[in-house]
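go over my protein:
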Amino acid sequence: MIHFIANPKAKSTTAVLAEIEERLTRENVPYTVHIGANKEETQSVTAELTAGPSPVTVIAVGGDGTLNDVLSGITNFETTVLGLVPAGTGNDFAAAAGIPEGAAALDLILANEPKPTDFIDCKRQRSINIAGLGIDVDIIERCTGRKENGKKMSYFRSLILSLLTYRGQKIEVTADGASFETSAYIAAVCNGKRLGGGIPLCPVADMGDGKLDLVVVDSPRLYRLPLLLIKLMSGKILTERITRHILCDTASIRQLSGRNVQIDGELVETPLLETEIVRGKLMMLRG
C-alpha cells in the first residue's frame, strides 16, 4: 500500500493526482490518497501513518513545503520510506534529488529502491532542502505581507524591491564550535542545492555525504551587487571571495537584527537558527 499525502493548494496537485490514480488503478497497485489541508493536518496524518511497527511508504504530493511537512511528521524512521511527487511551484529539492516533476515521478517510485538520505534537524522542525536567512527571507516577507506595510506582493515585484533595497544584516555564525560575526547578504545551511525556484546557491551540496553545507555570503559593496547576482544565478557564488563555504556537522546562525528565517521556503519566526545534520536516517525514493 502506497500512501499519498497531498497539498490541495499546490500548483498542480489536482491534475497530478488524477494521473496518479488513473495509472495505479490500471496497474492494480494498492494506494490511498490523504489530503493535508494545512501544515498541522499534514504532519498529523503522517505521524499516524508512520507510528506503527509495519513498513509504510508515504509520498508527498506538492512542493518543498509539503515535503517538509511530511518529513517533519514522520514518527518511526526505521519502518518508513519517503517519496515525492513534485507538484509545487519551485520544486527545488526534487531537482537536486533527481525526481521528475508531476506524475512522471511514479516511474521512480515504483521501480527504484530507497536510498539513505540526510536531512537537517532545525530543533523546531526538520528541513530537507535549505534553511537560512538573508535576501531570500526579505523576498518571502514581501510575498506574504510580513513587511512594514502588511501588503502581499507578487514574487516578481518582491524580488525587484528586495534587490533594490536589501543590504544585508549582522549575524553571528557558529560551525562545529567555531564562531564569527559578519554582515551577510545571505546565510544558509544546505542539504539540497538550490532555493527560490531555481537559484543554485550550493551546487556541490550532497544529500548523502553526512555533512551540512554552510554558505555565508557577506554583504557586497553596492557597485559589486550586479556581478554578485550574476554569480549567484549562474551557480558560481561559492567562488566569490566574500563567500564562506563550510562543511560541518552543526551550525547556528543568530540574527542581531531581523526576526524570521526560512526553512524549505516557509517563514519561521525566530532570531536563532540552530541546525544539525541527521545522517542517513531517512530512506527516500530518489534518483
